[in-house]
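Letters spell out the chain; the tokens describe the backbone. To illustrate:

===
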Amino acid sequence: MKIAMIGQKGIPATYGGIERHVEELSARLVGLGHDVTVYCRPHYTKSGGTYRGVRLAHTPSINTKHLDAISHTCVSTLAAVAAGADIIHYHALGPSVMSFIPAGLGRKIVATVHGLDWQRDKWGRASKAFLKLGEWCSARFPNRTIVVSKTLKKYYDGKYGMESVYIPNGIQPPAMRPAAVIREKFGLESGGYFLFVGRLVPEKGCDSLVEAFRGVDTDKKLVIAGGSSHSDEYEESLKSAAKADPRIIFTGYVYGETLEELYGNAFLYVQPSLIEGLPIALLEALSYGKPALISDIPENVEVVDGLAGIDLSKFTFRAGDSADLRARLTGLLACGIPDGAGDTLRGHVFANYDWDDIARSTAKVYEEVSGGR
């Protein structure tokens, strides 16, 4: 089938969980015999042609906070319809607003919901209303609605009286690298730092992480790897709060070998989120065998749900509570990481979040939508 992916910034993924999701999924769908086109924004994906067998189509956007996604989605939707796509696959709430166009033309549509974006603090009242419209559209117009977490499935099925399809984010076997680039660029040694990876936006909870870490008595460092996403003021507030503590390092966005080194050599990964869909960064950290200290929101906790032999109370804290986070960090420093914890977590995520399984499940949805072609 001819599949059009719309809503992501583009591939190859440099930053962004949705972009990583689309890249890994699209490449595997090509391997299953599908013809996949990913619609890319020119400010994110610079070159055209193909990548990992996926066709890259550049369509224009108005590159501002409020118009980038929707302008690109509108143009890409028209292009995908004109190109004769068998299935148009939207990613995220905002882009799903445009699903009424192919629906009105009788085209087959799939939408993947990666999170309830209207909950994010960076959006004003009008933008939140638009994203709530996108949520309604994602349940109303597509032939199938995919959700990336069990928490989202419960929400959609209960609110809209539907049967959404749970297909999570995934991971792939990591590349284990010694601390080389990160030693040279940031002065980091293996086992010598706590790590957070993600966008520096309020819902990621990095303000509570910085506040908590500043009160921890340790020689280890805190590495915050990520950058602004239309949230420059928040990023600057984090750096201001951390200014008096030289142990806190902001790397900006990193990817490739540098990111692999950061994951593979961390002492502990920390996920302080207030809101998530299903955090790919958390899955990736666990795939490196790195235990994670996570906020107790359902979307984080479900990643490690069902684990045996690990006291999860030591690895969770109350979301937004910097004092509780500080206590957990201090406790893990004092007691150390339990032997075998990393291997247990790694085995768990590989068993439950495998990209090959995810691609096959998505292809099955396409077959059902298209009537078994």
User: Anything to note?
Assistant: The two ends are 8 Å apart (CA to CA). The mean pLDDT is 93. The CA atoms of residues 14 and 255 lie 6 Å apart.
